[in-house]
Amino acid sequence: MTQIATSATTGANQMPNPYSADLLGRRTPWLVLGGAIVVGFIAVWLVSAADSAAGFNIVGAVLLSAVLYTVAIYITSFLVEGRRKATDRLITALVGGSFVLALLPLISLLFTVIVNGSARFDLEFFTYSMRNIVGEGGGIVHALVGTVLMTVAATVISVPIGLMTSIYLVEYGRGPLARSITFLVDVMTGIPSIVAGLFAYSVFALIFGPGIKLGIAGAIALSVIMIPIVVRSSEDMLKLVPNELREAAYALGVPKWLTIMKVVLPTSIAGIMTGVTLAIARVLGETAPLLVAAGFTNNLNYSLVEGRMQSLPVLVYNQYVSQGSIPQAYIDRAWAGALTLILIVMALNLIARLIAKYFAPKTGR
């Protein structure tokens, strides 16, 4: 009896072996994926090391790793699990490979910008302007200041107009006027960005004369792009507020305007703030409207209503197309500015996600 109990205890303590049931273990696909990535990256690195003129090809490494994983997981599953399960894993790997293939341009872009932009990503780059700089050195502080001032001004202009427009469309708008506003918002969403810059420049040229370039003109050009985005995102968020909340407030005798202020807007504030943040990220990289309306300068300018104002996208453009006596210095500044712009946009998108997560209304008790 003791021997039987010992055997039962020993059998109960043994870990089940997934391969005894003709199934791969949970970690096996991940181990196969890790091995494929290691082999793929080492193979591409050896090829790039043999050819000193060519750098490391991140796209080739990722693509080769995906192909190796697809082949390896199919063979491994076919040998252990049989044809049916191997076919299922093959289709899953192909779907995942299609996703990786769609990401390859983004991976290549990020890798290229990081590698080329890290050469000038230093303290001087963020504390100096380009005034009196004709070769190496200099920085982007004047462009950062201009970008922040024009983007903040565009946000101050766009958010109240866009939010009030969306409130009208959702809460009050009926009939031809509301349909006309919706149609115009859709049209504004699809206009080229340079048209917004030409519009802002034309307005200020009619007032101050031809050739005028001001930071406030660039802010207005950005606001023309931002307004339809804010309207659309805010309208969608306001439509998600349940009508039962509005009806409950009306039943208590609360006026419509107070219902909107105290019930509708607080309920949808997380989505509205997320839409505003994404709209800011959308206009942050605009080059054409700012080049037309705000111009470019190497000086630090804190005033939106006096003189030209530099922006980060325009600086990147100018550094790349107007290379001076030392072309590599201009190219390095352009890549570093592009890297800075990408990091700012990524930070804004992260902020939008955090806002959506932490400021969303709590539905639980």
Structure, explained:
There is one protein chain. This protein has two domains: 14-119, no CATH class; 141-358, MetI-like (MetI-like fold). Residues 1-12 have low confidence and may be disordered. The protein has 14 helices and no strands. It is mainly alpha-helical and 365 residues long. It has helices at 2-13, 28-50, 58-80, 83-117, 123-127, 141-172, 176-189, 193-208, 215-239, 243-251, 256-284, 288-293, 312-321, 327-358. It is flat, with a radius of gyration of 29 Å.
Layout of helices and strands, plus pairs?
Blueprint: H1 2-13, H2 28-50, H3 58-80, H4 83-117, H5 123-127, H6 141-172, H7 176-189, H8 193-208, H9 215-239, H10 243-251, H11 256-284, H12 288-293, H13 312-321, H14 327-358
Helix pairs in contact: 2-3, 3-4, 4-14, 6-9, 6-11, 6-13, 7-9, 8-9, 9-11, 10-11, 11-14, 13-14
Subcellular location: Cell membrane
Function: Part of the binding-protein-dependent transport system for phosphate; probably responsible for the translocation of the substrate across the membrane.
Keywords: Cell membrane, Membrane, Phosphate transport, Transmembrane, Transmembrane helix, Transport
Provide key terms for this protein.
about 375 residues; mainly alpha; about 0% strand; flat; membrane; cell membrane
Radius of gyration over all CA atoms, rounded: 29 Å
Give the CATH topology of the largest domain: MetI-like fold
Overall form:
flat
Instruction: Note the beta-strand portion.
Output: under 5%
Structural class: mainly alpha
Q: Please, how many domains?
A: 2
Poorly predicted residue ranges: 1-12
Helix content: over 70%
| Count of β-strands | 0
Family: Belongs to the binding-protein-dependent transport system permease family. CysTW subfamily.
Keywords: Cell membrane, Membrane, Phosphate transport, Transmembrane, Transmembrane helix, Transport
Domain ABC transmembrane type-1: 144-352
Organism: Homoserinimonas aerilata
